[in-house]
Design brief:
- The chain has about 450 residues and is an alpha/beta fold.
- The protein is about 45% helix and about 15% strand.
- Helix 6 (about 125-135) links the parallel strand 5 (about 115) and strand 6.
- Helix 1 (about 10-20) crosses helix 3 and helix 10 (about 195-230) runs parallel beside helix 13.
């Protein structure tokens, strides 16, 4: 198939590369000239395992451009993967980039075409897209809702090995195209759910919000666990053995972040309000997540009456380990609060450090380190804010040897309590061990 992928961020670039690896001829379109220039040179512009390898192997099936006409006129299958960020005022999805793409397709399409929507869009957008395009073009358009369920840090694996594929179609022609598009997955007996566009659009929002709900639930239980002397790790383990619950997303910590879960939760809440269907559970979930960094910070404030001129080792600022993405990272309000208390920061993140530096370049008192141990050296205490694999390899001896005092605040529960002897260790939903001072 000949396919144009519009928008080369996490979703678009991974889709483009994987499609090319299946011998489809792909044109990738993006307005970011620097990004396209790097891709033309064969350099992956996001950090994802195996993406660079696939990009190199599939380069003969890929072409990248910033020229709209050059990308749209040759083909009649367009995959839209532009961002739909939340509106700061009410959380509604900002569809500005999405409709700019539609305008480009309407003006440059050379024949009847198929539009595959991978961007996360409100329920009813499929239907509106068809009306919008056909009112601005002499051609007919079939619209296919194809929500993505990729997880950053494993996006290539997820797209190659999906747990299920959800597609919303409303015509035999659209169904025929998507079946050809998904032929390899159908052959492999991957569960392909063909449904209405409205169902597909809501499945995306509902799925992401349910995952966020599990995170907020276990974090609310972690707060209670600390009050009653329970261990949230054991509580989650006991819950996970119920097959109706499972273990995924039952990890207490700082809360969820990234480009999808916060955005989609806010969007679903907005959609509910617009439809006069208040989603109280989603509101509560969001409120728990917003206050989880404050809950974590209170542990530090109780331990240290003043942070003035203290040096704090901060490990991890990406919203999770394995990604450079700092969007909606719960580490951001934690670091900002520490700086507001006039602390000095020694920061290390193996992937997200550069993006964090760009966002925080106006702030002084931040030293960027090349290694985790460098961040620990001569710091008054350490704060762990994401679950990078590198941090999990640190031992109690690393903290004891390098910190002024071996005091650690772990916002991701990376270490078992029995492995932290000699360290005053504060975590989420578990008792504090080896207290060096009285509160």
């Amino acid at each position: 198939m000949n396919i144009t992928v519009i928008g080369l961020g996490y979703v678009g670039l991974v889709n483009a590369v994987v499609l090319a690896s299946y011998d489809h001829k792909v044109i990738g379109l993006d307005i970011d000239k620097n990004k396209v220039s790097l891709l033309k040179e064969g350099v992956a512009t996001i950090e994802e395992p195996n993406l660079q390898t696939l990009l190199t192997e599939a380069k003969f099936n890929l072409r990248f451009t910033t020229n709209v006409r050059d990308a749209i006129r040759p083909n009649n299958i367009f995959l839209i993967a532009v961002g739909t960020p939340p509106n700061d005022q009410d959380g509604s999805p900002d569809l500005t980039a999405f409709y700019q793409v539609l305008d480009s397709i309407a003006s440059e399409a050379s024949r009847d075409s198929f539009v595959i929507i991978r961007s996360t869009v409100p329920i009813g957008t499929n239907r509106k897209t068809k009306i919008y395009l056909e009112s601005r073009s002499k051609y007919k358009f079939e619209i296919i809702s194809f929500p993505e369920f990729l997880s950053q840090g494993r996006a290539v694996y997820d797209i190659l090995n999906p747990s299920r594929i959800v597609v919303g179609v409303s015509s035999p022609e659209a169904e025929g195209v998507i079946r050809e598009y998904l032929s390899d997955f159908i052959t492999r007996k991957i569960d392909v759910i063909l449904t209405s566009p409205e169902n597909a659009e809501l499945i995306k929002y509902a799925s992401n919000s349910f995952l966020a709900l599990k995170i907020s639930f276990i974090n609310s239980m972690a707060r209670l666990a600390e009050k009653v002397g329970a261990n949230i790790e054991q509580v989650a383990y006991g819950m996970s053995k119920d097959p109706r619950i499972g273990s995924a997303f039952l990890k207490a910590g700082l809360g969820y972040g990234g480009a999808c879960l916060p955005k989609d939760a806010r969007a679903l809440e907005y959609i509910g309000e617009k439809q006069n269907s208040e989603l109280l559970l989603i509101k509560a979930m969001t409120q728990i997540n917003m206050t989880q960094p404050e809950f974590f910070l209170e542990k530090i404030y109780r331990r240290y009456k003043s942070l003035n001129n203290l040096t704090i080792a901060v490990l991890g600022v990406g919203y999770k380990g394995g990604t450079e993405d700092i969007r909606s990272s719960p580490a951001i309000p934690v670091v900002r609060a520490l700086l507001d208390k006039n602390a000095n920061i020694q920061l290390y993140d193996p992937l997200a450090e550069d993006n964090f530096h760009k966002a925080f370049s106006r702030f002084g008192r931040i030293k960027y380190c090349d290694y985790a141990v460098d961040a620990l050296k001569k710091a008054d205490f350490a704060v762990i804010l994401n679950d990078s694999k590198e941090f999990k390899l640190l031992t109690n001896e690393d903290f004891i040897k390098n910190l002024k005092e071996p005091v650690v605040f772990d916002g991701r529960n990376l270490y078992s309590l029995d492995k932290m002897s000699g360290v005053e260790y504060h975590s989420i939903g578990r008792k504090t061990i080896n207290k060096l001072v009285k509160y």
